Amino acid sequence: MTGPLGKDLLGLADLSAEQIRLILDTAVPFKEISERQIKKVPTLRGMTIVNLFFENSTRTRVSFEFAEKRLSADTVNVAASTSSVSKGETLVDTARNLEAMRIDMVVIRHPASGAPRFLAERIDSNVINAGDGTHEHPTQGLLDLLTLRDHLGDLTGRRICIVGDVLHSRVARSNIYGLQKLGAEVAVCGPRSLLPNAVHELGVQVFDRIEAAIEWAEALNVLRLQLERMQAGYIPSLREYNRVFGVTSARLERASRDLLILHPGPMNRGVEIDSDVADGPHSVILHQVTNGVAVRMAVLYLLAGGRPDLADAAKGGRS
User: Which of 25, 100, 164, 208 has the fewest CB atoms within 10 Å around its CB?
Assistant: First the structure.
């Protein structure tokens, strides 16, 4: 089935500014549904969605599952460790077997960059990328964009800095692509060992000092240090990283303006971000989590062929 986004959502690099705005605008009434006493509409009743996760995830998987169930879809969760993949079955074998059961969509997270596209080219079901290697994490990028737009309004000309482990971060890439398409100015900040070699080719400004980034930015999106992807030598120690690049309340208090603080989670508290910042008045981290369900509802709805006019969905009617 093909909707206004095309067949699949594989990355924000593939979307136009108009398609990104469509998703964000569509997510707004879905937020209202999540505030109701009965948080369910029959919009995707009768559809079956498989969540195929080859990496551990809690936030993303649960957020997709909430989104699917609030739209009344039937949901099946498949973890690679408990599937036939652990017995040597290939990704395509798994997907084709699932598709033979007449599923409608696959949400996939995979450690290999490009795996969702590989899958999407070989099955008829809609494919949604829930994070692939160090490539992209489009729905996280979209929920970050929605959170920024909720607080800053039009993002044209707004200054957003992505801080931390950009090298290993699929979230950073989706944010950079999405922010630039919406007209924002984007910068990155972190040790050179945690920035891509060709980072300037992404069209971003680069800060070597967190103090300079804080002074420039209107919002910081603070990335988790992905210790599980690192070999020795990227940083001297966690304590040294916090001393040089940590987002602390002392550093924020010296800024000439109040900054919005985002974090895709999970956080290494006391490393890339201090607890008093994560839980402080300028943090919108929990707002991001709330927006995540609404954005994923919007993506599922639009990929299923839903109309951009959400009147029926918001009232509880079928699309």
Answer: 100
In 3D space, the residue among 274, 282, 276, 279 whose CA is nearest the CA of residue 255 turns out to be: 282
SS (H, E, C) 75-104: EEEEEHHHCHHHHCCCHHHHHHHHHHCCCC
Which residue is it, tokens 């994560």? 278
pLDDT attached to residue 317: 47
Phi-psi label, residue 120: left if phi above 0, alpha if psi -120 to 50, beta otherwise: alpha
Dihedral of CA atoms 173, 140, 319, 6 in degrees, nearest 10, equals: 20
Element holding 128 (H helix, E strand): strand 126-132
Note the pLDDT tens digit of each residue in 265-291: 899 999 999 999 999 999 999 999 999
Mode of pairing for the β-strands spanning 219-222 and 205-207: unpaired
Give the C-alpha separation, 179 to 8, whole Å.
Answer: 20
The pTM for the full model equals 0.92
CB-based contact 195:202 (threshold 8 Å): no
If you search the block for the tokens 């077997």, which residue do you land on? Answer: 97
What domains lie within the chain, and their CATH numbers? 12-136+291-308 (3.40.50.1370), 138-288 (3.40.50.1370)
Q: In what order do the strands lie in the sheet with 48-53?
A: 74-79, 48-53, 105-110, 126-132
